[in-house]
Amino acid sequence: MRARDLAEEYPLVQLTDDALTAARLIADQRRPGVVVVDAEGRPVTVLPGSQVLRFIIPGYVQEDPSLARVYDEKGSAQACISKLEGRTVKELLPPKEKRYELPKVSGDATVIECAAMMARLHSPLLLVSDDDTVHGVVTTSHLLKVILSTTGKAP
Amino acid sequence: MSPSQILSVLVFAGAYVLIATERVHRVAAALGGAAIMLALGLTNGETAFHSLDAGVDWNVVFLLLGMMIIVGVIKQTGLFEYLAIAAAKRARGKPFAVLAMFVVITAVASAALDNVTTVLLIAPVTFLVCDRLGLNPIPFLIAEVLASNIGGTATLIGDPPNIIIASRAGLSFNDFLVHLAPFIVVLMVVFVVVCRWLFRDAFHYDEDRVAEVMALSEREAIRDKRLLWQSLLVLALVLLGFVLHSALHLEPSVVALLGAGLLVLISKVTTEDAIADVEWETLVFFMGLFVMVGALVKTGVIDEVSETLAGAVGGEPLVAVMGLLVISALLSAVVDNIPYVATMSPIVGELVAAQGHTPQAESMWWSLALGADLGGNATAVGASANVVVLGLAARNGTPISFWQFTRYGVVVAGLSILLAAPYLWLRYFVLA
């Protein structure tokens, strides 16, 4: 099986899109992240859900587990949403020098090539494309399912 | 001056310039300087490692190590978060009351723990409370770090320069409590009042946002109640040990090491976690520094400088005390006060001995401590805690510029020295 066979249609967001919309896309469809494209539709990077969390949870709370416990649930949810309001997807992304390398393989890549790339980049998503043609995205869950079914250990 | 004295001064000055200008890492500069001193025969292994006057002061190194281990464990309990949130709720979110409580907590904690750890513990809660109250955290952070440097001056273990002074002068924990703590209490009261004026634009009270602070649950901050009680028990025993160390004939370093060992033994904290917060770099820096200063002692440079200074003050201890206070404050404002105090301690020791260990002469030690500790508040680079807070603020998206800090720091440091001078004069020259 090749990467193009594993690729699924996946929602794309633009750098200028609303951050709250991107977060909702991840939340409502229970996706591990979204693919970010530029104005011409070229993939730029992947925005994993964990990066959205890094943006909305203050750094001082991330570094101090004791502080994370003192929040009231309602108040903290409001604080989180307010941090996303009026922001763009670009603002959610880490600075360019720290940005995730775009996890990308060609349509001919094997299952293990796909797995190796995702493991190396710690990415829950893998873009499958040839030149300007985007075939879709491989998710960790789909890839694991394929690997397990090959060995006959799928549920 | 003999060739060995000239050589030792050159090596020491070169290393000091590198430390002060941060052209190379301070540990590399101190170790490099120590290595050159040893290689040139300006000191030797026997002196560097075993001499009480001209070698590594193991009391200082192990006292710091013991306290770092204890603090590392206490950090994991959530005690600070609990105290700060409870204080903010008790102040009912009123900005000045919150600031006053935070600076008092910081100052008291700094007297028992080191300043950098204290500000690292208080800063995250400050961000949280200010965020909830819709306040700018910068004035709060600056006030806290200033309070930390003031509070740390009160005790032997509060600030590394005090540890060096205590060891070199043979001063006890109680000596610091008797001679410095009363003044620091008064200074803290003055500082809190001054904060009301210094940061007057920062106290915007928004009644609607107070509920957001009142909704925080401080009890949840305590992650491990058993560890909290164990840590508090050991800290109390260690503080008691410091108070009684002269009567028990135990060095403060032994008390701290016993406390650290006991805490690791009775708690479920792993050894790796217990030593995770030990700042090995700082300990090695101290060792290198002591070897370098030891070479100056061994080659007789310190004796000559002391004799020259004794001649300059002409047997007038008041001139020496005031001069030391002002010069220490000025130098500590721009360079690290640890190497400064490490260098000055043997010189002050000689001056005190030359004047016959009278109470007036002994007050030079307090003058050195007050000047070096409080002078560090003047600029953003004057003390390690200042640099740490600037880094934390930048990381959390509220950067504090050098001058933003310094314009408050200069006022507080200047005021502190202005109050310290009459204190020293009255206590040791008028009322003695």
CATH architecture descriptor name of chain A? Roll
What share of the residues of chain B does DSSP label as strand, in percent?
under 5%
- Rg result of chain A: 17 Å
Span between termini of chain A: 20 Å
3D architecture notes:
The complex is a heterodimer of chains A (155) and B (432). Helices cover 46% and strands 19% of the residues of chain A. Chain A has 155 residues and is of the alpha/beta class. Chain A has a single domain, classed as CBS-domain (Roll), CATH 3.10.580. In chain A, the strands form two sheets. Chain A has a three-stranded mixed sheet. In chain A, strands 4-5-6 form a three-stranded mixed sheet. In chain A, helix 8 (111-121) crosses helix 9. Chain B is mainly α and 432 residues long. Helix content of chain B is 77%, strand content 0%. The interface between A and B is medium-sized, with 16 and 23 residues.
Topology:
The complex is a heterodimer of chains A (155) and B (432).
Chain A: H1 3-6, E1 12-14, H2 19-28, E2 33-37, E3 43-48, H3 49-56, H4 59-63, H5 65-70, H6 73-84, H7 89-92, E4 104-105, H8 111-121, E5 125-130, E6 133-139, H9 140-150
Chain B: H1 3-21, H2 26-39, H3 45-50, H4 58-75, H5 79-90, H6 95-112, H7 115-133, H8 137-152, H9 160-169, H10 173-179, H11 181-198, H12 207-214, H13 225-243, H14 245-248, H15 252-266, H16 271-275, H17 280-298, H18 301-313, H19 317-334, H20 337-354, H21 359-375, H22 384-395, H23 402-430
Helix pairs in contact in B: 1-2, 1-17, 2-17, 4-9, 4-15, 4-17, 5-6, 5-7, 6-7, 6-8, 6-11, 7-8, 7-22, 8-11, 8-22, 9-20, 9-21, 11-23, 13-15, 17-20, 18-20, 19-21, 19-23, 20-21, 21-23
